[in-house]
Amino acid sequence: MGRFVHPERRPAAVTGASSGIGAATALALAALGHPVALGARRTDRLDELAARIRAEGGEVSAHALDLTDDESVATFAEKVTADLGDIEVVISNAGLVQPGTTYEVETAQFAHEIDLNIVGAQRLARAFVPGMVERQRGDIVFVSSDVAVRARPFMASYAAGKWGLEGFAHAMQMELEGTGVRASIVRPGPTQSEMGSAWADEDAAFVITQWVRFGLARHPRLLKASALADAIATIVTAPRGVHLNLVEVTPEATVEPR
């Protein structure tokens, strides 16, 4: 018998599910009994995660998803709904950041990152939220970043994207009030993930040095992706009548010896 339990059935879709916070969230929601739809561009990773969830007794669907493409988002929504039924929980998690000086980075790259981090979230909302409103029930959670309130140098597109994402989400919260649909924000601090893993070593070292210079890295501790998954699970399992609008999660510093 698998370790997953099956209470009230609330299918959940998770984007950026091939690694990091997305993968951890999919596992956490599956463990709570949610049928889980996995979306990402790296379908080989999705297949591995789906096999793990099935082996542990969960219900899962996995399909390719590119949030910068209207047709891809629409097709994903159609497929996962056909596989699992009406989606009641959506986790908007996909994101991208490449290091670069704001006035030197290629405009096309800057625009691509903004497209994914903001417009991609709107594409996802447009695909799933109208059905939630019609059914008067649902949760959509936007994974933001502490750069939304504390911008970091040499990743301006990411900071701008997350600032914009939170403004977008706050507007949605007001628009959805009284519909039975909750829009929430999770704001992670520094987290262990694959984001930034493709950076050249010298670029990463330079950027981190600048973070320290401006007081943006007070200690070296990082969150595990599972900590964000737990926060997201808390949001979507909150009882009706409770709306966790914004949850900020930061790594605790190492206890200093006396």
Please tell me about this protein's structure.
The protein has a single domain, classed as 3-Layer(aba) Sandwich (Rossmann fold). It contains seven helices and seven strands. It has a seven-stranded parallel β-sheet, with helices on both faces. Helix 4 links the parallel strand 4 and strand 5. Helix 3 runs parallel beside helix 4 and helix 4 packs parallel to helix 5. It is globular, with a radius of gyration of 18 Å.
Task: Write a brief structural summary.
The protein is of the alpha/beta class and 258 residues long. The chain has helices spanning 20-31, 43-55, 70-84, 107-135, 156-176, 201-213, 225-236, and strands at residues 12-15, 36-40, 60-64, 89-92, 138-143, 181-188, 246-249.
Fold blueprint:
Elements: E1 12-15, H1 20-31, E2 36-40, H2 43-55, E3 60-64, H3 70-84, E4 89-92, H4 107-135, E5 138-143, H5 156-176, E6 181-188, H6 201-213, H7 225-236, E7 246-249
Parallel strand pairs: 1-2, 1-4, 2-3, 4-5, 5-6, 6-7
